[in-house]
Amino acid sequence: MKLYEYEAKQIFEKHGLVIPKQIATIEQIEELDNLSLKFPVMVKAMVLIGGRGKAGGIKLCSNIEETRKIVEKMFAMRIHGYPVKKILLEEAVDVANEIYMSVTTDPATFDIVIVTSASGGIDIEEVARTHPEEIWKKTIKDNAKDLPEDIAEEAAEFLVEKNADFITIKEKLYKAVKSLYNTFQHVEAKICEINPLIVTKDNFVIAADAKIVLDDNSLYRQAPLLKSINIDPRSKRHDISEQTIYEEQAYRIGFPYLDLIEHPEEFVKDKDKLYVGLVPGGAGYGIFSIDEVVNIGKRYYEGKVIPINFMDSGGGPSLIKVADMFHLLMDHPATDIIITSRFGGISSCDIFIRGLIMSLRDRFMSKKRMIPVFGRMVGTDLAAARAYLEKAKRETPEPLKDLHIVIGNQKIMADVIRDGIEYGFKVKKQLEEKEVN
User: Fold this and answer.
1) CATH superfamily of 21-91
2) pTM of the full predicted structure?
3) Does residue 237 surpass a pLDDT of 60?
4) How far is it, in rounded angstroms, from Cα 305 to Cα 375?
5) Distance CA 151, CA 437 (A)
């Protein structure tokens, strides 16, 4: 669960980090009339995505007229495709220097990682790429509840080495990194980040921005925390601004779906890569399929194979839901080929193939975009599914000409995925040659 900046700042403040004075969070411009503002103020769009500043979502305002104009403009904005529905107003802070500081978890090892840099306020990934010496990074392998004194001291020392002016605030930097780490552990977060941690001209250290992502698996233990920031712990908070349009569509239909590429609404393909949509038979198959697509891409195709999604049909999906799953991926701008699997246990192979064929026939009749489908099915109702598939191909061969389903166990799914990827590149090459000619 991602938190808005104003929510994360409330939590940071509870754990000893200094934040700017929070004036108000508004959801419509008329609320400005009820506020007593002391200028200058910061006006910030509340969206659960990075890059707000570059997109015009963070502005300094010096009077009420300018504030009204900026607020009106922000409420009409979409930042990386996400609408602005809330705006935070807070006191402006004099800036002398900006620091980056974060605590997160290494997804490969699950060790805690602390990162800090005296080059804050900008894209930390770019700093790490071009000036790695400007980044301090420490891995905590024992999941210590409190940050060891020597590591906090080392972080503060690094910042002082990079900026001699920080010598007078070394103790404050030491306390800031300890507080951030303790926040991370106390709220069971996946990431706690401050960018920038501002050093003012008067040598105050203030968290001018705040990012917290909570671990969904621990939310049931965090009811007091959620209540303290006005989130009902009894219901799953699901902000539409967190979702891509395809995730929102799947949520409405009723099946789990995640985009694995950022901002698919604005996606531009790399013509040298193959983008694979996945419709697996369950969550386990979904994770396996993602891993195997990546593995085959690295081993045989120089890393040019990209899985675009995770999907889970759930147990016993209806015919309509199966059709909708394929419609979603065929409407997705990234998809070059769909690889699917049905290991029928609870779910019926017959319902699966009927839903898939329904989607292909509907798209053909409506002259919608058609994507090759490559996969395998085995298990419950397989005989009926085979009979239906064979009959459908005889009756309507044109909509189903690019449907390739292996029936039974004569080929393992890893080989099916590899064959599907090979076929996808073949089709991609044929289309490119056709466009040239």
Assistant:
1) ATP-grasp fold, A domain (3.30.1490.20)
2) 0.66
3) no
4) 17
5) 63
